[in-house]
Each structure stands twice: as structure tokens, then as C-alpha cells.
Amino acid sequence: MACRAVCLLVVFAALMRERSVTRAATALHLSQGAAGAALGRLRKLFDDELFTRTRTGIEPTPRAVELARRIEPALGLIHGAVTDQDRFDPATAKCTFTLGMSDDLEAVLLPRLPAATADLPGIRIAVRQATRNTVAGMVDRGEIDFGIATAPAHGPDHRTRTLFTSGHSRLFNPRLLPLATPLGLEDFLAHPHLLISYDGRRGIVDDLLQARGLDRRVIASTTHFGGAALHLATVPVLAMAPAHAATVYADALGLTVAEPPLPMPEYVVSAIWHAAATDDPGQLWFRNLACAHRAYRTRHGRLLSKVQSGMR
């Protein structure tokens, strides 16, 4: 009876990880019928549906999530022993790792990943666009292996790790706007602005200005920081960008980085992944690679908080 229960938990672990009966069966070298039968026995054992069908696969019920959280360490060990995935050798592995993040973080993090994996012919890095509001769902659905976002929304079946703190910088083209730095509030308000905002209507700068009874002239908006930086090459406008990406854009496009003329809040950037992947050797290797210990510099060379090592 104990052996049978362990076998069922192995299937449960695969279903939680793969979010698909077919993929779970493949991972465990079982037929789809055998995996489906095991799911039926699991449902009877725990008196719960455990997984419900969706358009993209299956999703765990609250009962399944709670079970996974309680027996997560044991499930990880069982899965590794059964599938022989308790070891990971990047030199011989053939796999694609998918990371979710916004384009400003991609500008800072992605360039060094291909260089780090250049001598690993079987490793491929893929990046998908993700925000703090979408990254957790993408992790849950298996669309990404893990994500990096500003204060990502997360639940009890997620794990997070603070990477660094950042702030805001003002970008402009000195050939089109020959402004002196530091940029004063009068000059800031005297020139047109390019807004980067998810809804295209207003940003944090507008809220701060409104609190002072002030307003700025926004002539256009976009949802992507990288696109806004490219527009500055030909348009005489000011644009706000995350401090960690501003120097990247400035160096690449010959732009000037300036401190905002009013106090701006800092924010935390974190990694997020599913609890079931915490001890997976391949996932752990990738998380440590993508979030390797390094320092990010602001526009005036001041060090931001360093990325923490040890992603367990």
C-alpha cells in the first residue's frame, strides 16, 4: 500500500509540474491511459478533483495546491530519483530555458546570457514579455521557467527572491535638446514629454506633479521603454526610464541621463518561480545563471543593491 501511494505521488508531482496529463505521462515514461488512471486513483484517495481541464491543459484545485505545498520537499526527491533528473550537466544537457521579464530588464540582463552559454551547445535561452501582473500566471501555466519583475504579484505556491532596487531616470537626446544637467523643474516642464505607460494615459510623474498643482505636456505615449529610447534619436522630447536600463539605452543611442527634478520613489526587482521547481537541478542552474551576483550602476555611477546569489 505504501509503495502504491508513493507511485501515485510521483504522478501527482508530474501533473503539478507539467500541467498536462500527456506531458506528465511522457516525463514518467507512462502511457497516457496509465497516467489518467493514476489521476483517477489520486482523486479517490484525496476525495477531490485535484485538477480541472482548461483550454491549455489542466489546472490544480486549491486542495492540490495545498497538498503540493505540504509534500513539496518529498515530491522533489521522488521526482529526481524516478526520472534521473537529480543531476544537471549544462555541458551535455539539451534544453530551452524560458525567462519572463519586461523590455527594460531584458536590456540589462539578456545581453550577457548568450555569452555565458556560448560554450554550451545544447542550451538555449528564450525570453517572453512579462509584467508584475502577468508573470505569476505565466509561471503557473508553464509558459516560463521563472520571471523577473518589479514587485511581482505572487501567491503561496510561488517563491520569490529580491534581486536589486532601482529608481527612475530622465532621458533625452542632447543633440535635439541641449539641456544642462542636473535638469531643473522649470526646464522639465518647459519641454514636451514622451510617456511610457501601460495604459498610455498617465504615469507616476503625472501623479507627483498633480500633487504639486503642476502638469506636463505629453505629446505621445508608448508601452515599451526600448521603443521610447529609439524615438528619442529623432524626436526632441524628454522620457522617463528605469534607472537600471537608462544607462544601457544612453550608451547605445548617445542619449543623456539626468536625475528627475523631483523626488521619485525607488522600487524592488525580484525573481519569481513556482515552488515545485525550487530544487529542480536544471531550473536552479538557470536561475543562478540569469541572476548571477553582479552590481547595477545608476546614471551617476552610484551602485544599486547587488543581485543576491543562491536562488534556492
UniProtKB/TrEMBL annotation:
<keyword id="KW-0805">Transcription regulation</keyword>
<dbReference type="InterPro" id="IPR036388">
    <property type="entry name" value="WH-like_DNA-bd_sf"/>
</dbReference>
<dbReference type="InterPro" id="IPR000847">
    <property type="entry name" value="LysR_HTH_N"/>
</dbReference>
<dbReference type="InterPro" id="IPR036390">
    <property type="entry name" value="WH_DNA-bd_sf"/>
</dbReference>
<dbReference type="InterPro" id="IPR005119">
    <property type="entry name" value="LysR_subst-bd"/>
</dbReference>
<dbReference type="InterPro" id="IPR050389">
    <property type="entry name" value="LysR-type_TF"/>
</dbReference>
<keyword id="KW-0804">Transcription</keyword>
<feature type="domain" description="HTH lysR-type">
    <location>
        <begin position="8"/>
        <end position="61"/>
    </location>
</feature>
<dbReference type="Pfam" id="PF03466">
    <property type="entry name" value="LysR_substrate"/>
</dbReference>
<protein>
    <submittedName>
        <fullName>LysR substrate-binding domain-containing protein</fullName>
    </submittedName>
</protein>
<comment type="similarity">
    <text>Belongs to the LysR transcriptional regulatory family.</text>
</comment>
<keyword id="KW-0238">DNA-binding</keyword>
<dbReference type="Pfam" id="PF00126">
    <property type="entry name" value="HTH_1"/>
</dbReference>
